[in-house]
Amino acid sequence: MHVSRVLFPLLILTCACDGEPQNHRKRMEKEIEALGLLLPGLYQAILKPLSPQFAPSINGSLTLVREDDEFIAGLRYSAGVPETLVSQNLHRGSRCPDLQRDDANRDGHIDAPEGAAVYGPILIPLDDDLSAQHLGGGIFPFSDKYGQYFWSRSVAFSRLLKDLREEDLNPLDDLVKLSHGEVISAENLVVVVSGIPAQTPLPDTVLGKGINSPHLSYPVACGVLFRPERIPGKIIPDETGIPVPSAGGVGGS
Length: 253
Fold this sequence. Notes:
Layout: H1 3-7, H2 22-35, E1 41-46, E2 48-49, E3 59-67, E4 70-78, E5 87-91, H3 99-102, H4 112-119, E6 122-125, E7 149-156, H5 157-164, E8 190-194, E9 219-224
Antiparallel strand pairs: 1-3, 2-9, 3-4, 4-7, 5-6, 5-8, 8-9
């Protein structure tokens, strides 16, 4: 059974590889392998809270799956900020910020500029359309009244990669492209979940980033991508050697 079918059984999947000429597919695989960007398989990032004031117990993860030209992303969490417009992005950095280490102005908050100094610019916006950085329009769901949240999208990975290799038409925004011949590993990329209610009181020292307000861009949770040794939810064969009782109980037949 494919990994993607195990993780997202209700998701209608998109695959652009059927009927694709074999030589083109091989070229695509070589380019992907040369970049080191999302080799086939499963990646995860476990979310950790960045905001002790607003979501100290947030718990969840980002899961990315690539099989051939099929790319699926899913993010879910609980105990987040209730009824809030959430944004999530995959950044070019390699670690999450720490309040003791990265709160430059010592105001008790990691705001968007302080966070970006650690986890870097946005490589992939995890918004309504993964095929290009700007096509999703920055459209994200709201968390529910309990602070729970679920989002998932799929796309042909060749389209995503093509967009990342195109010219950066606005080098002044928070989005970056891959430069020609650049090698980047999917492992250690950073996912950041941002957003608190607009009416939340904040000190004047808390700043926004780009065109986004301090509230919309306030980082709440963060996680670093890694490749798990075992697929979550997959049954692990018993290798203990301990006899398993039969259906009739111990000693039954």
